[in-house]
Amino acid sequence: MDQPQDARATLERLIADRGDNYADLSRLIGRNAAYIQQFIKRGTPRKLDEDDRRVLARYFGVSEDMLGGVASAAPAPVRGRGLPAVVSVPRLALGASAGGGTLDDDERAAGVMAFDARWLRHLGVRPQRVSIIRVDGESMAPTLSDGDDIMVDHDDDADRLRDGVYVLRLDGVLMVKRIAMGPLRGRFSVLSDNAHYPDWADIDPVLVDIVGRVVWTGRRLH
User: Fold this and answer.
1) Which of 95, 112, 209, 212 has the smallest CB count inside 10 Å?
2) DSSP character for 184?
3) Are 69 and 51 in contact (CB under 8 A)?
4) Residue of 65, 123, 134 lying closest to 98 (CA atoms)
5) 3-state SS, residue 134
6) What pLDDT, on a 0 to 100 scale, did the predictor assign at position 82?
7) Strands, E, within the chain: which ranges?
8) Which helix (H) or strand (E) holds 148?
9) What integer pLDDT is reported at residue 189 of this predicted model?
10) What was the pLDDT predicted at 30?
């Protein structure tokens, strides 16, 4: 078996062992959703791009030569020893509106942001089920500002809905808003933290698609 075939078999095993899927791993490296599946099943591309291989190796905690890279004389990092494992989280090329609303028509990955795997576990999230989205607008100020990056936990969806800040789709528009449960049983309100923007009270849950709960935010200082 040649090296590219070894790399494909290894990657397929790593994905299965972690319970990941091809589409999430493709987005992790900023590729279209079918990229990893095509690499493993069809052999296209013949080998992984160097940057893609590096991100995947760090994500799975293995040496790059296992994924088709050149073997290094230096020992590979071991999980739990030395430097902490780093997980790459996809940064999506869209904005969750905190203003008038952004149409959700461009969900490709625009890059990745690296996080300490232990810190993500502390947050209580699965690395393969979070993404970074940009906030557009000021309706959630002062909690969130225009241009902030937010981490969205896609496991924390409608089945676990409670008071908090969520990314959601309402009338086909992607937005970030505060959700407040009740007072009518089975209904909730969609609120703006900025008093100059509107709220929607007693929303029927069937009208809203919950994308995920906001668990972290980062911003640039001006």
Assistant:
1) 209
2) S
3) no
4) 134
5) strand
6) 43
7) 86-97, 102-103, 109-116, 130-136, 149-153, 164-170, 173-181, 188-191, 200-203, 208-218
8) none
9) 94
10) 75
Residue 148 has which token pair? 């902030």
* β-strand partners of 216: 151
**What pLDDT, on the 0 to 100 scale, is given for residue 166?**
96
Query: What confidence score (pLDDT) does residue 3 get?
Result: 59
* Buried/exposed code over 75-109 (b: 16+ C-beta within 10 A; e: otherwise): eebeeeeeeebebbbbbbebbbbbbebbebeeeeb
Helix (H) or strand (E) holding 18: helix 3-18
The SS3 of residue 214 is strand
Ordered mean pLDDT values, 10 residues apiece, the chain (222 residues): 74 84 79 90 90 80 81 41 65 63 50 83 87 91 92 90 93 90 87 94 90 90 68
Can you tell me the distance from the alpha carbon of 32 to that of 10, in angstroms, rounded to the nearest whole number? Answer: 21
